[in-house]
Amino acid sequence: MAQKTSQPVSTPSEEPAWKQRAIERSTQAAKRRAEQRVERFLGAAQAIMAEKGTTDFTVQEVIERSRQSLRSFYQHFDGKHELLLALFEDAMNRTADQIRAAASGQSDPLDRVKVAVQLLFELSRPDPTAQRPLFTDFAPRLLVSHPAEVKVAHAPLLTLFTELMTEAETAGRLRPGAKPRRLAAMTMQTVMFNAQSSGAASDDGSAHPITAEEIWDFCSSGFAHTR
């Protein structure tokens, strides 16, 4: 009886190292080019908003200002809404960085929260001279129409406020049983809502009936530990 010989099991060979390096370089180069194109679209939109003081512009204006093609635009964005959302998310990241830097100058954890609350209030308040259409035009509409996208955009701010609240809790500056993340979310919502509403004139004709100090007193009474 003939003996069966076992067939060698073939295994797929790995790509040669030189080929892997070549593919990686090509991928990295394509990624850099895509990032540059995106930055040009964002920069063009920012420039147009700065000139107009509003988010009322067209995709064609962005294309012409960026000197890129319509095809290239739609390779990176579904439309104007997604472009504005990218700008808004970028603005929220910069806002979080600005507040973090300002708060870091305080040694007391509760004072850091105070700086964050008051600065967020000032940055969120309508100001005709500041030319912040992403906050005054786009953000309020986005909150109503796309709340999930607002949540994603606000994530850097929520992370920052949670960190500050946690530090204050560790230092014994918050009320017993405080939940830093929930307090951070409620404080942010209170501050931003009141800031965006403070542009309307009150019954006595004042332009800004609520001040940053008042908003801090109101918020801190809900979470600060009184000694």
SS-derived structural category: mainly alpha
| End-to-end separation | 96 Å
Q: What is the count of helical runs?
A: 10
* H-E order: HHHHHHHHHH
- The percent range for helix content is 55-70%
Rg, nearest Å = 25 Å
Count of distinct strands: 0
Q: What does the largest sheet look like?
A: none
The low-confidence runs, each spanning 5 or more residues with pLDDT under 50, are none
| Proportion of beta-strand residues | under 5%
Mean pLDDT, all residues: 86
Which outline best applies? globular
Report on this model:
With 227 residues, the chain is an all-alpha fold. It contains ten helices and no strands. It is globular, with a radius of gyration of 25 Å.
Short description:
By secondary structure, the chain is an all-alpha fold.
Summarize the SSE layout with pairings.
Blueprint: H1 17-52, H2 59-66, H3 70-76, H4 80-103, H5 109-124, H6 133-145, H7 147-153, H8 155-170, H9 180-197, H10 212-223
Essential attributes:
mainly alpha; 10 helices; globular
